[in-house]
Q: What sequence folds into this?
């Protein structure tokens, strides 16, 4: 196999039984019985737990000065105040992903973007979850006055300071272990790599996920 063949593809091994031991507010847990190779040419049935997640989108917003928009949010499971890129759940059936991303950028950061590109697609925890994340690159930004945004920030979103960080500095912070959020880390490094070609290799905003 050569490097040209390195490309992820969909695959689904036979599931002979399935149950749902946990049903949560945002995610659920499904327990599958999967037929898998036993290493000697045969097969065996094994259990695999899957966290069912609706998926999410993230936005790497880059202004005309080459600065990245980051906001700080409390994350209870990890016990951190994290610097993150704007992001949100795919919780509206049928909503185009770039429209969801635009809504999150407006509601969380008070910004609109005139230019959108697909930056990167990620399966953040493929060994335990079916969550899919698409990260968009947003440019040509315009700040929207707070009184024009119809959104009430509560709970984790009640106090989210926003900062603009030069892209090179953001990369350095990622490599120094100062930024941990997956969407922020992935988006920052992807934007840094894409910049080297003048962002010419990016996919359109409505590119298929597969």
A:
């Amino acid at each position: 196999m050569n490097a040209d063949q390195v490309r992820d593809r969909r695959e689904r091994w036979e599931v002979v039984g399935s149950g749902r031991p946990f049903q949560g507010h945002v995610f659920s847990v499904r327990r599958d019985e999967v037929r898998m190779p036993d290493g000697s040419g045969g097969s065996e049935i094994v259990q695999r737990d899957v966290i069912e997640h609706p998926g999410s989108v993230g936005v790497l917003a880059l202004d005309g000065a080459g600065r990245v928009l980051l906001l700080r949010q409390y994350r209870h499971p990890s016990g951190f105040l994290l610097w993150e890129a704007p992001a949100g759940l795919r919780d509206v059936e049928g909503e185009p992903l770039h429209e969801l991303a635009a809504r999150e950028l407006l509601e969380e950061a008070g910004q609109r973007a005139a230019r959108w590109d697909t930056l990167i697609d990620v399966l953040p925890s493929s060994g335990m979850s079916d969550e899919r994340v698409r990260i968009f690159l947003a440019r040509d930004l315009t700040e929207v006055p707070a009184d024009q945004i119809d959104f009430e920030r509560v709970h984790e979103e009640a106090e989210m300071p926003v900062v603009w960080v030069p892209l090179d500095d953001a990369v350095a912070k990622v490599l120094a272990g100062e930024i941990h959020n997956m969407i922020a880390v992935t988006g920052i490094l992807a934007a840094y790599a894409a910049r080297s070609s003048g962002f010419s290799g990016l996919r359109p905003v409505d590119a298929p996920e597969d």
Notes: The beta strands are 15-23, 28-37, 43-52, 56-61, 67-75, 80-84, 87-89, 111-122, 133-143, 162-166. The chain has three helices and ten strands. The chain has a mean pLDDT of 92. The helical segments are 97-109, 167-175, 182-195.
